[in-house]
Amino acid sequence: MNTPRTPQFLTPAAVRPQPGQEHLHGPSAEATLAEVMAFYERVMEALPAQLAVFSPDGVYEYVTPSAIADPETREWIVGKTDVEYAAVRGLPPEVVSQRQERVQRVVRSRQPETFEESFTTRTGETRHFRRHVVPVFNADGNVQHVLGYGLDITEQRRAEEQLRHSQKMDAVGRLAGGVAHDFNNLLTVIGGFTECLQEDIKDEAQLTMLASIREATDRATELTRQLLSMSRQQVTQPRLLDLGEAVRDTMQMLGRLLNDRVTITLALATDLPPVRADIGQLKQVLMNLAVNARDAMPDGGTLTLATAMVEVGEAPPPRLQGLPAGQWVELTVTDTGTGMSDTVKGQIFEPFFTTKPQGRGTGLGLSTVYGIVTQAGGHIAVDSTPGWGSTFRIYLPRPETDVAPG
Hints:
The protein is of the alpha+beta class.
């Protein structure tokens, strides 16, 4: 196997003797030089940041293992440009163009630059980097090398996006909760007077109109209840319960909601610890997700409900990123429907957002699910690909004490 060639700044001519060793020549000097070179090579290889050294015309002179892990590729890239590397690596043309322009600008201005770079990897994952490009001068004050190093800030960007989404949902929730409370008071008045009129009026035509008013009031009351759930302001009665048993108890109700072309399958783990939740709200979560899945499978399909125990450590896998360390009970709801694009997936929990035709949805179903789950101290995430269905993952914390469900 080839080994990376030694960069120019680690060659013997570039390493000065240590203080008090200027007089050394022969084997001792060579041994000292070898130790210094080995030290700097170890330092470069241990750098967590991605580091590359370019010539002033943008040719690679050296890259660290943190930038390119494969030693043969690190050997190959020396003497190549980003254009040649991009043809092998599959980098987007705009990324290559930006890198080349930065190197040339730094050489001309003799000033360092910092910028951010984002691109999609060959596995389809979007990564974000903060790059720094710095000129390196020789003894005559000319730019001899250009140092480029970068930090992977993908997780930082994801955390920031999650925080922005959480803040937006909190703000909308407070507004919706305040409106819902005021609206609910008005509905109480309307409903009360409607009942009084129904007791006094005997005319059938007028009673029919009052019944329509009462029905509309009940529907509006249900909307305010959804708004309060979404805004996490609804009064709840949490208790310890068996999640698998709650799912099985909901099956008959789900069967009435779904059409005959949708098959429900269960994959419920045994011996799960109890979770603390409001049973009514938990069933509402299941119903809302089931209805959402049904609408995504107009020609039929399979709805799978599964439970599992999940333990989050210090380095969780991508699907568990953002979950605090500890033990969680996972509920997944998977459909084989139309799936969602990344754009739609980023908005589905927002109140009143819907992809359904006008009159077929309020856009409160998934935002209500989001509010209920977060009010219970849980987390929710969604995986979806257009044409390949969707999976909603709900994580409820394991209580500190394992008391039998009530």
